[in-house]
Amino acid sequence: MKEYWSSLASLLGVLAFCQSLLQLVFPPQLRFLCLRFLNRVFHLFSSYCYFDITETDGLSTNELYNAVQLYLSSFVSNNGSRLSLTRALNSTATTFGLSNNDCVFDTFGGATVLWEHVVIQRQSQALTWRPLPEEKRGFTLRIKKKDKALILHSYLDYIMEKSDEIRRKNRDRLLYTNSRGGSLDSRGHPWESVPFKHPSTFDTLAMHPVKKQEIMDDLRDFADGQSFYDKTGRAWKRGYLLYGPPGTGKSSMIAAMANYLSYDIYDLELTEVHNNSELRKLLMKTSSKSIIVIEDIDCSVNLTNRKKKKNKGNNYCDPETSCGAGDEDGGNSTITLSGLLNFTDGLWSCCGTERIFVFTTNHIEKLDPALLRHGRMDMHIYMSHCSYPALQILLKNYLEYEETGSDCDDLKQLAEVVDKAEMTPADISEILIKNRRHKQKALSELLEAMKTRAERKLKCGSLRQQEMEDEEEEKRALESPEGGSESDFEQSCKKQGVIEEKMK
Ligand SMILES: Nc1ncnc2c1ncn2[C@@H]1O[C@H](COP(=O)(O)OP(=O)(O)OP(=O)(O)O)[C@@H](O)[C@H]1O
Ligand SMILES: [Mg+2]
């Protein structure tokens, strides 16, 4: 052991002697050149090349550094052994990060790359007007030389895209409204926003699964369809019209769409918009990846007929016929159907990308066909009364009721009566919420309510049928020569008698 230590000491002595000899023979300048030369030779024969992505680029922040950090956070939790955890302001998600001087591998298009997070202590604080952070941070990307073209062109673009997506997902969605009625905030913005935390998703939405899947596929195709829209020369936007009776889930569907695509919502209150140019300004201030909603469009403003001339006592006017002196925009004091059509489909509608327009109505028949045509409203979605497949979703969500097969008598009866009852999901969910702790009670109360509704519907239907038949008979009697002899009074007495009989 003693011998070992003495030989180690003499070896260190020789090394120290060699080092001082080298310093004597090679001056520092020459040494630096030698090292640079050796480095070059090493890189010439190495199959790898390296890229440094620093946190700051001079004084401005390097977007690529932030993007890489976010991108790595999406998968580093599976691969890394030592991670940093952060949570941004207003965020509900935790972000994983690569710890200082740690490495992680990634693959892209068949190429494997290595990312290293490099953190170096800053030697001395240079004299600047802005104090610099104590650490210099950056990522070093190691790739094979043969993959250089692929990585530099596609991989870095992919990272930027992916990080945008992660940023949007981590941030809470926003719900914008124009309820201030045209006035701007301090930043000149016409929209007010609040965090959007609606819990409705496509899982909680009660509707036929096939229809639901069709809508989800359509939304996904739209969101992933940039190249398709570019190729076909179409503006990257899509319109959905949701129509159906109140309480069938139109607003819930909009929330589910926003949650599914992680889009913001702009809830446009048309009654607060004074004219077409204000509408256009509102549109210009919306961001991409958003859903622009006009609820109850038939009630907002009179938008029934583009060809109609100006009506008295009605804030609608025709853009194609002059609506007031000097009103080349169809009226500076009113909003027109033409203005709305341009909003959804004109040149101005393309001032942003990746936007969805959703209109809702309880009365589709009241809308002008121009508003409904494809290109404006590409998909017309009828939100119907509750069907049996939709009811099954509600039972599962509210009562945790799993498929029990044909042995459940109540379920069988519900399946028979649900279509005849024509109840909305809103009506049904009220009964289920009330009895959610007693499954059996909930089912029997629901069945009772459905049966009563179905009976009433049946009675109303046959009453209406009878009335129509009576009217038809009356008409025929009046037209025939003998029928004309019966006086009006006698006829109305007879009719009254029939109605009283039915009411009994
Ligand atoms: N299809 C559905 N799936 C799940 N829940 C629903 C559905 N439809 C309605 N509901 C429930 O009923 C409530 C009202 O629904 P919602 O506001 O979406 O109806 P709507 O069709 O927009 O009605 P309106 O035409 O009156 O605006 C919701 O809070 C939701 O809980
Ligand atoms: Mg609604």
Q: Roughly what fraction of the amino acids lie in strands? A: 15-25%
User: Spans of 5+ residues with little confidence (pLDDT < 50)?
Assistant: 304-331, 483-490
Structural class: alpha/beta
Major sheet summary line: 7 strands, mixed
The number of helices is 17
Radius of gyration: 36 Å
Inertia-based shape: elongated
Q: What is the distance, rounded to the nearest whole angstrom, between the alpha carbons of the first and last residues? A: 118 Å
**Spatial arrangement of strands, main beta sheet:** 10-9-12-13-14-11-15
Which percent range fits the helix content? Answer: 40-55%
How many distinct beta strands?
15
- Bound ligand species: adenosine-5'-triphosphate, magnesium ion
Q: What is the mean predicted local confidence, pLDDT?
A: 79
Q: Can you walk me through this structure?
A:
The longest helix is centred in the last third of the chain and has 41 residues, at 439-479. Strand 2 (56-57) and strand 3 form a beta hairpin. This protein has helices at 2-25, 28-45, 63-73, 76-79, 148-170, 209-223, 226-232, 250-261, 276-284, 297-300, 337-345, 369-372, 388-399, 409-421, 425-434, 439-479, 488-503, and strands spanning 48-54, 56-57, 60-61, 83-86, 95-98, 103-108, 111-121, 135-144, 174-177, 192-195, 237-243, 264-267, 290-294, 355-361, 379-382. By secondary structure, it is of the alpha/beta class. It is built from 17 helices and 15 strands. Helix content is 46%, strand content 16%. Strands 10-9-12-13-14-11-15 form a seven-stranded mixed β-sheet. Magnesium ion binds at residues 250-251, 295, 360. Residues 459-504 are annotated as: Disordered. Residues 491-504 have a biased composition (Basic and acidic residues). Pfam families: AAA, AAA_assoc, AAA_lid_At3g28540. InterPro entries: AAA+_ATPase, AAA_N_dom, At3g28540-like_C, ATPase_AAA_core, Mitochondrial_chaperone_BCS1, P-loop_NTPase. It catalyses: ATP + H2O = ADP + phosphate + H(+).
